[in-house]
Amino acid sequence: HRLWARAMGFIFLVPFILFLWKGALTKRLVRRLLVTVLLAGLAGIFGWIMVASGLVNRPWVNAYKLTIHLGIALILYSYHFQTVLLTRGFNDGGLYPKVRRAIGFFLSLLALQIFFGGLMSGMKAALVFPTFPDMHGSFIPNVLLDLGNWSVDNVVHYDKSAFMPALIQVTHRSLAYLLVISQLYIIWKYQKALFSGAYKKLSTLWIILLITQVVLGVSVLLGSVGTIPIYSGVAHQAFAILLLSATIALRYRLRDSRE
Questions:
Q1: Residue 35, burial from CB neighbour count under 10 angstroms (0-12, 13-18, 19+)
Q2: What is the pLDDT of residues 38-87, one digit of tens each?
């Protein structure tokens, strides 16, 4: 992971400096690429903070610091991905502003869902309730209904009780339902726009990726009996990035070219 991060730095910086020296970059592109450099540096700093949290008291990293590192990395990825789309002129001049706003709402939900996915992973929260659609016979675990468990100590020391893993898992599941409902609504409301010639393939991919992501999420949950299934867990994370990419691309395709 460290070597890959360093390799990414060289792969980015060498051509960036070369193109900058040759004057091949516009001022707007230079500004965006400098933001990319700053975000990459910030991700690296929090990467070390995350690693350092696993060198004291326990041999695994803090779930909150892991999620912050993940969040910064995804902001970096999303920003740079939009820069790539910008250089390709990947938009249709803002033909459907209402659809774009709806996709933007979905994107916000998805970003929040990925954040809680990071917490799910860091806390190994799937191990606590590896059942679906219920959580050991109920939809709201008793540990969350006991007001005595709602304490700062349980939030900070999340690995000492089932409270935080249960709360994170309930939130992660609820956001998944909201994502499905919001996508179904967008498809129903704006089907003529989404499935016109220009957007049909990208919209279809967007739908397929969410369905696949839901199936993978359930499979990871059901397979988390005693241990997390690594390969399906990684696939779930990978498809989260693909779904994020497709959502960004679809929203960007609908943007006003003057933005």
A1: middle
A2: 999 999 999 999 988 887 777 788 999 999 999 999 999 999 999 999 88
The token duo for 129 is 């309730």
Average pLDDT value for residue range 25-35: 92
Compute CA distances 242 → 52, 78, 235, 248, 249, whole Å: 30, 11, 10, 10, 10
What CA–CA distances, in Å, run from 170 to 124, 164, 174, 187, 194? 14, 10, 6, 26, 31
Q: State whether residue 138 is helix, strand or coil.
A: strand
Give the pLDDT band of residue 199 (cuts 50, 70, 90): confident
Helix (H) or strand (E) holding 84: helix 63-87
Neighbouring C-alpha atoms within 13 Å toward the C-beta of 96: 22
Cα separation, 118 vs 72, whole angstroms: 12
Instruction: Compute the residue count for the chain.
Output: 259
Quick one: which H or E segment has residue 179? Answer: helix 163-189
Indicate whether 34 pLDDT > 70. Answer: yes
Q: What is the Cα–Cα distance from 60 to 122, expressed in whole angstroms?
A: 9
pLDDT in tens, 114-143: 999 999 999 999 999 999 999 988 889 999
Cα distances from 23 to residues 36, 74, 82, 83, 114, in angstroms, run: 19, 29, 22, 18, 38
Q: Name which of 122, 120, 247 is nearest 174 in CA terms.
A: 120
Please determine, for residue 259, whether its predicted confidence score (pLDDT) is greater than 50.
no
Q: Distance between CA 170 and CA 144 in Å, rounded?
A: 10
Nearest to 247 by CA among 220, 213, 197: 213
